[in-house]
Amino acid sequence: MARYTGPKHRLARREGRNVLEKQSASLLRRLNVPPGMHGARGRRRFSEFGTQLREKQLAKRTYGVMEKQFQKYYQTAKKVKGKTGEVLLQSLETRLDNIVYRLGFAPTRSMARQLVSHGHVLVNGQVVNIPSYTVKSGQVITLSSKAMRIPVVAKLLEAADLSILDWLERKAAAGKLRQIPTRDQIPVEINEQLIVEYYSR
């Protein structure tokens, strides 16, 4: 599956919000200036369509999903009983790479994706190397012994002040999806209703 490999600070500056998970002094200082040679002139006022588009782009960039795949998530969510926007976010949150990130096995979603792609993540004891794999309630996520020797990962596993979301459970290098999260349990500043309106045009 394709992925974005360009400059990531540019994406955050385009949205005016930090979508990179990690903090960067230079990025936070420049978030109010859009990228490009005319960025210093400030942001234009968006139309209704522009506002919807930016929210969709924000969700895509937060979860590291490309356009075609994001459309598939939306089309699938639309067919499920319930609020389409909430189901969409639930689908994104239960991606394997996002679960690895939420469990604190990786500092960013991009590194979590890399751990999965390189075969360092096991689901119920079986290696799964597909970042978009949908984790189901009750499934146990563990890291390979090789992954636990990666310095960044080892440091995270030793961290004592790690806070795990209510719908997840973690002990050492093993974690479990306890339940599918409700909208209130998903800590992302995304207005999913604007995304639904964008695709409902």
Strand residue content: 5-15%
The quaternary state of the protein chains shown equals single chain
Give the count of structural domains: 2
Order of helices and strands: HHHHHHHEEEHEEH
CATH superfamily of the largest domain: Ribosomal protein S4/S9, N-terminal domain
Structural class: alpha+beta
Span between N and C termini?
27 Å
CATH class of the largest domain: Mainly Alpha
What share of the residues lie within helices? 40-55%
What strand order characterises the main sheet?
2-1-3-5-4
**Total number of β-strand segments?**
5
Unreliably modeled segments: none
Main beta sheet strand tally, sense and closure: 5 strands, antiparallel
Quick structural gist:
By secondary structure, the protein is α+β, with helices and mostly antiparallel strands. It has two domains: 8-92 and 188-199, Ribosomal protein S4/S9, N-terminal domain (Ribosomal Protein S4 Delta 41, Chain A, domain 1); 95-179, Roll (Structural Genomics Hypothetical 15.5 Kd Protein In mrcA-pckA Intergenic Region, Chain A), CATH 3.10.290.
Q: Would you give an account of this structure?
A:
With 201 residues, the protein is α+β, with helices and mostly antiparallel strands. Helices cover 42% and strands 8% of the residues. It is built from nine helices and five strands, in the order αααααααβββαββα. Helix 4 (67-78) crosses helix 5 and helix 6 crosses helix 7 (109-117). The longest helix has 16 residues, at 48-63. The radius of gyration is 18 Å and the shape is globular.
